Every structure is written in structure tokens, then in C-alpha cells.
Amino acid sequence: MSVWMGMPAFPDAARKALADSQLRANLRAATGTIRAKRAAVVAERADWPELRAAGRAIKDRALRDLDNHLSLLAERVTAAGGVVHWARDAAEANRTVVGLVRAAGAAEVVKVKSMATQEIELNEALAAAGIAAYETDLAELIVQLGHDRPSHILVPAIHRNRTQIRDLFRRTMPEAPPDLTDDPEALAAAAREHLRRKFLAARVAVSGANFAVAETGALVVVESEGNGRMCLTLPEVLISVVGIEKVIPTWTDLEVMLQLLPRSSTGERMNPYTSVWRGVRPGDGPREFHLVLLDNGRTDALADEVGRDALRCIRCSACLNVCPVYERAGGHAYGSVYPGPIGAILTPQLRGVDADPVSRTLPYASTLCGACYEVCPVLIDIPRSLVHLRAKVVDVHRGTPSAERAAMTLAAKTFASPRRFALAQRLVRFGARLLRRTRLPGPHSGWTDARDIPPPPDHTFREWWATRTDTPVVDHATRERARLDSGTGAPERDGPREDHARGAGGELGAGNDVVLGPGGAEVLARVRSALGSAREDVEVPREYAHAVEDDVDVVALFAERAADYRAVVRRVAGDGGGTAAAAAVGQALRELGAASVVVPDDLPAELLSQVDGVVLRDRGDLTVDALDRVDAVLTGCAVAVAETGTIVLDAGTGQGRRALSLVPDAHVCVVRAGQVVGTVPEAVAATAGADVLTWVSGPSATSDIELHRVEGVHGPRTLVIVLVD
């Protein structure tokens, strides 16, 4: 369920939130900071409008042919060793996950932050089955320990300040020191200590996904703290619950999404970590991978040609950070897992506009100012959808007796007749003069709290017009009778005409040959019913930049951008024999105080010639506990991205399995100048076909405590890059 049980309608919840001055101060500071960060990184991109247009087209292309993309995704995941499950609703998804956890013999799971699992109330379902779920994202952990509810998509604990978090940790964390301060670094360290053993010992992890690539079967998780990497890499079993709208058609589409999402959400060129995987990779990561594809109302939204725009959402939260209503009322007032403007259109569609008081009032939780549309990276016209949903709310209640409906019926009858309208004008004018009031009585008094009732005019417009022209006033009914008598055609319409004709699209595909089961067959049938047989052929415009300007030194730019995100960069000259690189590696490890270092078994020996401490070569036999006792890891990389300061590992030569660069406290990475490319599109193209990828931009980090950035949460605390010219 996307709506929390027992929540009041939005106006009532917002009224309570507005009385909380501390909440409003927290929200004002946080949203203002995120807005400024986003604006700065977006301003760097002259091609931002082109990226947004491409993002919109990619999502529309996926939705317009969703059944075929889902079938292909399921086929590719299965071919890569994964198992695909289909969930028609929340109950079916929860039963599936509970069954998989029990089959693994586990009594607890670790979780990556996931809106989908919150939507279906998975934690509650697991608890009812006797299974403990541990949230590992710092903000989600704060919410869980406080028996609270998330209030923001990106920073769920945005409503709590550091003092409140310190007091919560002291009460609920046995390992928290009694003198724990409210310093964000101390709080992040306490969370790391609290969860470390859970990560290292977990048998089952549950995640969501930001994107699922139909063409390759790859799933993508974008995060900052390293908890995602821990959950996706270390347990024996990984279960990913993913909404069916998260699919994108092709691998190339990632070159757009990986530029739009980080800049729109965290206000960064690239999040610290992006993990990509396909199915199961022997010896590297979980032994089992289960993908649960979730409908839970999404096909209902898909059937609405206006409402389906909400399914483009990539959960960046940019709309929340600019919304004047959210900034004052906060996320809890929305009564749903999905707060803010996107929640105001998504929740009523997943639940039904008349499902509960929350769903029927959320379409009105907006001033329709349009700020959300201006920042949406995939161009969702939220104001248009809100107006559309308001009309649906009205339609649902059409015919239900109410004072408002009686007043509107009377007004309609009055306005339909020129005589009745003229009589009403005279009565209003006479009554206003007789009563001589400037304030309305009773429940209408709120309207006149800040304004007076205007005095009635001496004449109506018709009366005034008749005194200034010889042209007679002819009412609409008289004009229509004249048209019909003259045989000039059908009566005119008072409103604009609507053209509901749909453009011709490609024929409905038969889908791919994949075992669906009853759940999958029904979900795909729902998708086909929602889309119909006439489908639009959406072409993706790719007019955004694919390379940097010719005069840009990509190696220097990479060094600058990597340092921006707190990586330590040591640039050395290439000398053919690798002596300078080896010296830089040795010096870096000494400065880190590393008495031991683990390396991939195929790392070139010359890089280790000046290492003083113990060197462990990993042949896949080192346990997670053994890796946790090592001080540092030394690897190479597959490619490096200049514009974002990112290194990309694909588990190839000299890089090792994913756990190797994750568990030790410091990561030293050797990057050759020839491996540096200018842009994200070039990096995506260079890594096509990889089974696993880890994009690393600086050390692990969090900004979940009053948006204060802290390095070193669950992944390595330090990243040193030895850049060899």
C-alpha cells in the first residue's frame, strides 16, 4: 500500500505540519541547499535541455512498448542466471520475497533503500513472517530506529536535526558510545559500526533498482554510502523488487540517465557509487539473483494517456525541492510513501482517486505554479496531470448530493438562461445595497478575512453596452435559433473541441519466448490492454554532447574533477617500466598507514615493488572477514571519466571481484592516461557487454544529517588515484 493506514486527508495533515516551526526550518534549509547544488551542476551543462528531451523520449519509448521490453528483460535476466518473478500486487510481491528468504534459511535480511519495498510494506510483511529487516541507508536507518516514516525521496530523515538523531542513536544503538556527540561524522561512524557485522554476515539482501535495461538484462543502482554495494555484493542471495516502469530499452539509454539522475537528485556530477550487474557471476557476488517485477497499480496508470506520464519518474526528488507546498507542509502531510508533487499524481493513480481521503485530496495539494515541471529531468508536466486528476475526482463524485453540488446546479441553471441571469444580477445588486456588508457571514467569512466584498456596479455590462451603441444585444440562444433557421449548420460549441484520435504506431509485438507463470501472463495482458493496439513510435533525440571539446585536456580534467569529490590524486609520469607508478603506490600506502594490502591475483607485479607491508593476492579464496581485516586494496580500472571524475571497474584484468574494492578501508586505484575518456556516453559505450560494473566517484559519502557531507560510511573511507601519464 502506497498510503499509510489511518492518515488524514492532505488539508488536515498539512494544517498540523504548518504548526511545527522546527519542521519548517529544517525543510527550508534542506530544500534550499539541494536546490542550489542542483542549479550549480545543471548550469555546467549547455546541453541540459537536450538531455531532458532525450530522457523523456527514452521513458516514453519504454512505456509505449512496455510488454515487449519487459519480456525481453525477463529473457535476458534468465539467460544470465537470474530468476524472474512477477507480482500483480503488493500481497503477491510480499509472499514471493518471504518465500525466497525462507528458502534461503535466513531469519534476517539487509536492505538497500527502495521506494518499491516501502510501497508494498515489505518490512511489515517480513516482520509478520518472523524475519527481521535491517535498513542500511543512513536516513532509512534513522527512520526505522525512530519508528518513523520517511518524509523525502532522497533524504527520508530530512525532518530530523542532528540533535534528534544523536538522542535516537543513544537510545537505540547498544554499541553507541554514551558520550556520542551530534557531530555528523561521529553519527555516521556510529551507524557504520552498528551495521558492519550485519553486512558481513548477511545471507540475503533486498534491493530495488533505478533502471533495468531490457536489451542486456542489466540492473542499475545509484547510491552514495556504499550500503548498496554491500547488499548487492556480499550476501549469498539477492532479491530485487522493481516496478515495471523502471525498464529502459537499450544500454545506450544509460548514457542519458546517468547524467540526469545524479545532477537532479543529489546535485552531483555523479553519485559516489553506481552498481550494474546482470544475473549471477560465478565467484563474484551473490550465488542467487531473483528479480521481482511489480505491477501494483502501474498498469492502471499506464491506461490513462495523461496519467501515464507519472510513470516516467526516475525518483530524483527535484520536484520536492522546489515545491512551495512541500517546503511548508513536509513529506508526512502527503500521507504516502511518495511525497511532494510527484506523489500527488502517482499515489492517486496507484491507489485510485477515490480509494481513501489521502488519494482524493492529493491532486489539490498544489498551487499549480509549475516549478516542478521546470526542474523535472524527464519533463513530466505535473500541473497538467494534477488538473486531470482533479477532474477525475469530480467525476467520481458526480451526482453525489452536497451543498457545493446544489450551488453549482443552481448556478448552471441561472447561467443557462439570459432572463434568469439578468434577474439574478438585479437580485444580487439589490441585496448587496440593502445589507451593505463588506464581510461574508458564517463559513464564507474566510474569503473576506483579507478582502472586502466589492460594491455592486450601477449597471451590468449589457446595460452599459446598450447605452453606447446602436447594436442590439442578442443573446446566445437567439443567435443559435437564427443559425438553425438559416440552415448554416449545427450549433456552435461553447468550449474548445477535443481531438481524441491517436496517431498510428507500430503493431503490437508478440513478446519474447519466456516462462511467465500466471502472474507474468496477467501483468503483460494488463500492459497490452492498457496500451491498446495502436502504438506511437517514439524516436529518441540524441543531440546532447557525446564528447568534450577538442581543446580540453581530458586527463587534467579528470584529475580536477576526481579531487572535487575528495579523492586523493597523485599524477606521475609514465616511464615505461612503471617505476614512478610503483613509487607513488608505495608512498600512498605508507601515508595511509596500511600495514597490509590485498590485490587481484593478476595485478602486474611491478606495481608492488615498493610496497612495504604484507601483500595478499586474492584468488577468490579470501573470506569477507579476511578482507575486513586488510587495511587497503590496490586495483586498476577499466575506464575513467573526465567530466565526472569517475573510475569504472568491470572486474577485468587487475581489478578483481567486486568485494575486493569494497570491504577494505582504503582503495588505491592506478589509472593510465589512455584509459581516460571525456564523457559519460563514451564510458557507457566502452563498457558495453560487461556483466558487472562499479562506477566510483570519490570515497563513500552521505549527506543525510542536515545535508552535511561525511566521507567514509560503509564503503572505503579513502580513495587514492595514481594517475599515470
Question: What are the defining features of this structure?
Answer:
Rossmann fold; 725 residues; Helical_ferredxn; LutB/LldF; alpha/beta; 8-stranded mixed sheet
Account of the 3D structure:
One of its GO terms (molecular function) is metal ion binding. This protein is of the alpha/beta class and 725 residues long. Among the domains are: 45-300, 3-Layer(aba) Sandwich (Rossmann fold), CATH 3.40.50; 407-430 and 457-467, no CATH class; 554-724, NagB/RpiA/CoA transferase-like (Rossmann fold). It is built from 28 helices and 22 strands. Strand 20 (701-702) and strand 21 (710-711) form a beta hairpin. The model is unreliable at 488-513 (pLDDT under 50).
Short description:
Pfam families: Fer4_8, LUD_dom, LutB_C. Keywords: 4Fe-4S, Electron transport, Iron, Iron-sulfur, Metal-binding, Repeat, Transport. The protein is an alpha/beta fold and 725 residues long.
Tally of helical segments: 28
- Strand coverage percent: 5-15%
Percentage of residues in helical conformation: 40-55%
CATH superfamily of the domain at 45-300: NagB/RpiA/CoA transferase-like
Strand order of the largest sheet: 8-5-6-9-19-16-15-18
What is the CATH topology descriptor of the domain at 45-300? Rossmann fold
Low-confidence stretches: 488-513
Summed over residues and divided by their number, the pLDDT gives a mean of 89
Which overall shape is indicated by the principal axes computed on the Cα atoms?
elongated
Structural class by SSE content: alpha/beta
How many angstroms separate the termini?
Answer: 55 Å
* Alpha-carbon Rg, integer: 30 Å
For the record, the CATH class of the domain at 45-300 is Alpha Beta
SS elements, strand count: 22
Examine the secondary-structure arrangement and name the CATH architecture of the domain at 45-300: 3-Layer(aba) Sandwich
Largest sheet: 8 strands, mixed
Keywords: 4Fe-4S, Electron transport, Iron, Iron-sulfur, Metal-binding, Repeat, Transport
Domain 4Fe-4S ferredoxin-type: 304-325
Protein name: Iron-sulfur cluster protein
Biased composition (Basic and acidic residues): 491-502
